[in-house]
Amino acid sequence: QVQLVESGGGLVQAGGSLTLSCAVSGLSIGSLIMAWFRQAPGKEREFVGAITWGGGRTDAADAVKGRFTISRDNALNTVYLKMNSLKSEDTAVYYCAADKTLTLPIGREMNSYDYWGQGTQVTVSS
């Protein structure tokens, strides 16, 4: 059984930083494209960023480019989302997702991903 478990969410002031983790069990992330999505209240879930299985390629949404960084530790089977210069509009539930098909380009749509975590809340106070 594949499980993705996010952690690291919380309350942070605007301008601050937070790092989210996504621990994967049941499957090696070395064979996955890993992504982060987020969903704010009343809005659709949106793509934040992704990283390929070897970490050689990344993609990020324009709204977070230059502020958020995705990385992975295949030995720990964990993916990270480092968020800097947080803004109130970054407030959302953040979800980790995995694509097992190993196809490029990196997908930005929800239906590109096969497995999902339960989400972790990030709240940025202004």
Q: How would you characterize the overall build of this protein?
A:
By secondary structure, this protein is mainly β. Helices cover 0% and strands 48% of the residues. It is built from no helices and eleven strands. The protein has strands spanning 3-7, 10-13, 18-25, 33-39, 46-51, 58-60, 68-73, 78-83, 92-99, 115-116, 120-125. The strands form two sheets. Strands 2, 4, 5, 6, 9, 10 and 11 form a seven-stranded mixed beta sheet that branches. A four-stranded antiparallel beta sheet has the order 1-3-8-7, with no helix packed on it. A hairpin with a 6-residue loop joins strand 4 and strand 5. The N and C termini lie far apart (40 Å). The mean pLDDT is 95.
Task: Provide key terms for this protein.
48% strand; 4-stranded antiparallel sheet; mainly beta; single chain; 7-stranded mixed sheet; 126 residues
Percent range for β-strand residues: over 45%
Task: Give a short account of the largest sheet.
Answer: 7 strands, mixed
Which term fits the overall shape? Answer: globular
In DSSP terms (H or I, runs of 4 or more residues), the helix count works out at 0
Class from secondary-structure proportions:
mainly beta
Query: What value does the Rg take, in angstroms?
Result: 13 Å
Low-pLDDT residue intervals, each spanning 5 or more residues: none
The beta-strand count equals 11
State the separation between the terminal residues, measured CA to CA: 40 Å
* Helical content class: under 10%
Task: Determine the mean pLDDT.
Answer: 95
The run of helices and strands is EEEEEEEEEEE
